[in-house]
Amino acid sequence: MGKYDPLETFLQGQQGERVPVKFSEVEEILGFKLPASKQYPAWWSNNPSNNPMTRTWLRAGYMTEQVDTVSGRLVFRRTHPPKAAGATPRSGGFPGYGAMKGTVRLGEGVDLTAPADPAWGSVFE
To answer: What residues are paired with 75 via a beta bridge?
Structure first.
């Protein structure tokens, strides 16, 4: 069982689309204090490579929004049904990567490995 699994269990048990919580409530759910970096909005970002706890709420089917580090509050918003146990969220780039796949066509005989300007080197001779 992972350190942040209690948060995943909590979120999976929620019925609403939005789950407003205080940082202190998250600490109660987890059973330990959050790191000092909780004071920075970036710590609550939805980037799966951000920190292990981020992957936990993403796996549970939620994203964070309305993060208010001054008052210590945030909202978890449901994005999709939870992923299967043990699954990890896709990481490694912009979510729209590949959206244009297959839309670019090259003309007949185009060689992308050929030099774009074969005479380029002769300028300095």
So the answer is: 20, 65
**Buried b or exposed e, range 42-73, using 16+ CB within 10 angstroms:** ebbeeebeebebbbbbbbbbbbbeebeeeebe
Q: 49: which 2 tokens? A: 């490579």
Edge-to-edge order in the sheet of strand 18-22: 18-22, 73-78, 62-68
Structure tokens at 29: 């759910």
Model confidence, pTM: 0.64
pLDDT at 125: 58
For residue 120, being part of any structural domain is answered with no
Q: pLDDT tens digits for 77-109?
A: 999 776 555 555 555 555 566 666 777 787 888
Q: How long, in residues, is the chain?
A: 125
Total structural domains within the chain:
1
Domain of 27 in residue numbering reads as 5-78
- Give the residue, 110 or 24, on which the prediction is more confident: 24
